[in-house]
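Changelog entry

Holo records now carry the ligand SMILES as an explicit input line rather than a separate metadata file. Below, a converted record for magnesium ion, shown in the new format.
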Amino acid sequence: MKQAKKTEGETDRGARDVRPWDTISLSPRQRQILSLLRAGKANKEIAHELGIGIGTVKQHLVTLFKKLGVSNRSMAISKSHAIEGLPIDGPVPLDAKTDGAPAAPSLLERRPVAVLSLEVLVTDGIASADLLRDLYRIYAEVAFDFGAVFLSHRGGRCDMIFGIRQVRRYDAPRALRAAVAVSEAMKSRHGDTVFIRGGLAYGYVFASTDSDGEWTGEAIGGTAIATARALVGRAQPGSVGLAPKAQATIADLGLDTSNGIPAIVPLNREFRWRRLMSPPPLALRGRIVEIQALRKRIMHLKSGNGGFSIIDGESGMGKTALAHVLAITANKESITNEAWLCAIPDSQPGSASLGRLERSDSHDVETVEDFCRRFAHPPADAPHLLIIEDAHLLPRDDLLQLIELGMRLNETSVLLAIVYRGRINADKHQIDAGSIIRPGHLPDDVATEIIEDHLGPGHPGTTWVRNMARGVPNFLTRLAAYVEHEDQVDGPGRVPTSELFVLVAERIEAHNLDRRLLYGVARHSKKIEIPALQEHWVGMTDEFEPTLKQAIEAGVLTLTRGRRGKPDSVEISHPLVKWVFSAAFASQDRAFG
Ligand SMILES: Nc1ncnc2c1ncn2[C@@H]1O[C@H](COP(=O)(O)OP(=O)(O)O)[C@@H](O)[C@H]1O
Ligand SMILES: [Mg+2]
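Structure line, unchanged by the conversion:
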């Protein structure tokens, strides 16, 4: 058996069979065949997939085995896993396990992530070994606490990658909070001669993941990592430099300082983001019934009748837009009003901001407790409107306090309006169902109006946007903005912006569904019959059905019953979800291309 030349420092143990990928240099065709071998394909299937004869496949295999220094296909498969840097392939069928190949090879996923690079600076000399050991321990602890993938580098440097396992909308500000946590821990142990500085970038990376979305360690990379590292050297001690995309993401979350999103964030607890209430739409379309109900409520308030009102529903349905209508109507009727936003629990670089209300038009901050106390004995005279935006962000006890307050305001001239993402259970809280406004999906004609507001009439992307958005206002406006900056409108194949990706993935990933199952479905542009899906299933045989059932029950997959003896099939329910998943897994099929 021909062996690769040992490189310096390489030990004999096990290393002799491992050749770096580049010294083996397989042709694209050989890589394709190796990938199909890894996918457990027989010679006949390989021939079929590549459109070549069986004889040719056999010839290729002889050369491939020779190059790998192996004598049969199972050796080739296990060898392929030992080669560093070998591109990652798709699922392997269950029986491949008995073939000596690792059970479940990785998926290569495109993930929107926040990347934080950190390093330590010691003002009076070189960091001691003790200090560095301490630093790496703190890095690892903080990365663990935040669920970040942690990569350590020499010289007190590291990268933390947020969003591999699970996308979180607030990953960029969470990363800053992690940086503050590291900085505070180091300062408390080593005093003021030690400084942390860092870089924060945001964007897509490619990462190898398992069915839970955990990083498998085979591949992780993307320009966001390089960007974050490049920023570190330019940051002042005790601060984190933000890449433009990181700034844009934070702005998109509705976070702000009084001076916009800074390019440099100081690592101290005093630093705070202010939440902004998203601006009202250019024109509010198709909400005539809801607006009428709100207007009626304001007129009622004007004649001295306060009480409780709720606007609830899924994210992006236009709840905030309706809250704006409420405030504007109140202004027109000269009713004083105040809007309060709920702090996002894990978005502040400093300490936790749970249960804090922030006044939308000033710097005022109040706890829910103080807020409720202030209106415990409301003045009986002039009508007054209170709006609480995104009350779902509050701890449960605080929310209950607000609901209680709302119920008590019935006899007063104060109206409390709560905007809540999700569904408030009216029965459970004994809330009059009539006081809940729940904006629904918009019909096609209204959807078209919204698209036209953004793109003008007759834009070629109109149909695509309308079909993808399925009547959700936020999807309509975001997708319209997306095609506005894209001249080509051809549907799938295009990559969603990371903001769109996060918007969609965050909702799906909360269900903790099996990634490989979703990949199996997403790679088909149409419905896939369940037996065909099962054929590529890499988990335990008896786990296939419950896993599939879970995805169907979560509403992520739609089941279609087979007719005339045909098997049942599934597909991804929402076109936007399908788009996002195909973009996430697109590299899979191209890995060997
Ligand atoms: N009826 C509507 N007509 C036009 N645009 C709308 C409508 N409802 C919402 N939008 C737009 O959709 C996006 C999401 O609306 P928003 O009120 O923030 O949703 P929510 O508060 O329910 O998450 C915003 O950009 C908003 O301007
Ligand atoms: Mg909102």
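Spot-checked after migration. The CA atoms of residues 314 and 422 lie 5 Å apart. The chain has four domains: 15-86, 108-271, 288-437, 492-593.
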